[in-house]
């Protein structure tokens, strides 16, 4: 296997293998370096992890225990403030303004989201991903360690989302402790008629991506469950946090409808756990990428605790 991979690396051809299981207990990352034969060999031999960047353009998958992430660059901006102080910030803001104007011109009036009646014994949770941020635009990986703002397009997305949800009376609203979630909810809330208070909780925060945060165009070449090996949040902890967040939003809200603004990877985890309880993972695979300001709806029976997904990744209010 190693000989085959090395020959493919040298030739530039593609190798596609199984990626369903890549156990990687050792935490070792090489950030910002091309993947050499020796480093790949070491990764495979010791089941270590590599993050590669720069000149290497790999198009194969390694299947023997190494988790390899490709990154376009190392960390262009270590913090959001660095981005705001950079020469590129003004042009990013201007182009996002233009995107928002162009999208507004191409869209018709917003249609209110119509949902089936809620059972008196159920709680309805409407979960929205935050609007697009500056670092979303730059494809910079960030979870909880880099807290950036939504850009002009993200604000427009949030406005349209508020209008789409304006026919729903929310009894409570939840947000993460991250700015992009809170800014989105602040824009959505005036369009909803009944929400009394916003509760900020770190249970709704994005995944902590550890050493991957700040890297640009990060893509898994060989994928594996996220865990301690990058210094980030472990899968068991993420799953527990999703369960705890659901429990928090259910407490005291029997027969009510609540709104939550959270983050892509976290919402995906929440939906996958519910889908698994409903009978399998195949449906959950469709949630892998949630669009900014997409709408998801979960109904939970207050007596049995059974959660049912009613809507996933709805984006009609922002589609041309």
- Helix count equals 9
Based on CA inertia axes, which overall geometry fits?
globular
| Rg on CA atoms, Å | 21 Å
Give the topology string: H per helix, E per strand: HHEEHHEHHEHEEHEHEE
> What's the assembly state of these chains?
single chain
**Percent of residues in beta strands?**
15-25%
Structural class: alpha/beta
Indicate the low-confidence ranges by residue numbers. Answer: 1-37, 43-66, 222-228
Domain count, please report it. 2
The CATH class name of the largest domain reads: Alpha Beta
Count all strands and give the number.
9
| Overall residue-averaged pLDDT value | 76
Terminus-to-terminus distance = 47 Å
Which CATH architecture of the largest domain? 3-Layer(aba) Sandwich
How would you describe this structure to a colleague?
Residues 1-21 form the signal peptide. With 320 residues, the chain is α/β, with parallel strands linked by helices. Helices cover 32% and strands 15% of the residues. It has helices at 2-11, 37-46, 80-84, 89-106, 134-137, 152-164, 179-188, 235-250, 264-278; strands at residues 49-53, 67-71, 122-129, 172-175, 198-200, 219-220, 257-262, 295-301, 307-314. The strands form 2 sheets. Strands 5-4-7-3-8-9 form a 6-stranded mixed β-sheet. It has a 3-stranded mixed β-sheet with strand order 1-2-6, covered by helices on one side. Strand 8 (295-301) and strand 9 (307-314) form a beta hairpin. Helix 4 (89-106) packs parallel to helix 6 and helix 6 (152-164) crosses helix 7. It starts with a helix and ends in a 6-residue tail after the last strand.
């Amino acid at each position: 296997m190693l000989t085959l991979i090395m020959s493919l690396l040298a030739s530039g051809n593609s190798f596609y293998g199984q990626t369903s299981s890549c156990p990687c207990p050792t935490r070792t990352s090489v950030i910002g370096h091309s993947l050499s034969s020796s480093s790949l060999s070491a990764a495979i031999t010791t089941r270590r992890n590599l993050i590669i960047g720069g000149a290497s353009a790999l198009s194969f998958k390694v299947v023997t225990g190494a988790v390899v992430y490709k990154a376009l660059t190392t960390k262009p901006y270590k913090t959001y403030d660095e981005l705001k102080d950079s020469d590129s910030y003004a042009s990013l803001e201007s182009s996002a303004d233009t995107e928002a104007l162009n999208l507004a011109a191409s869209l018709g009036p917003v249609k209110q989201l119509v949902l089936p009646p809620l059972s008196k014994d159920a709680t309805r949770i409407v979960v929205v991903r935050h609007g697009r941020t500056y670092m979303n635009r730059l494809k910079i990986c960030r979870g909880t360690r880099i807290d950036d703002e939504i850009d002009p397009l993200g604000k427009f997305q949030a406005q349209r989302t508020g209008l789409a949800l304006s026919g729903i009376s929310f009894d409570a609203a939840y947000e993460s402790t991250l700015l992009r979630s809170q800014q989105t909810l602040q824009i959505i809330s005036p369009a909803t008629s009944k929400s009394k208070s916003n509760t900020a909780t770190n249970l709704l925060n994005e995944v902590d991506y550890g050493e991957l945060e700040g890297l640009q165009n990060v893509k898994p070449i060989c994928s594996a469950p996220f865990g301690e090996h990058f210094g980030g949040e472990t899968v068991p902890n993420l799953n527990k946090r999703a369960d705890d967040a659901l429990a928090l939003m259910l407490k005291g809200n029997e027969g009510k409808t609540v709104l939550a603004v959270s983050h892509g990877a976290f919402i995906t985890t929440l939906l996958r756990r519910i889908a698994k309880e409903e009978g399998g993972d195949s449906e959950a695979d469709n949630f892998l990428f949630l669009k900014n300001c997409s709408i998801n709806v979960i109904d939970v029976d207050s007596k049995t605790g059974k959660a049912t997904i009613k809507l996933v990744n709805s984006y009609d209010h922002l589609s041309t």
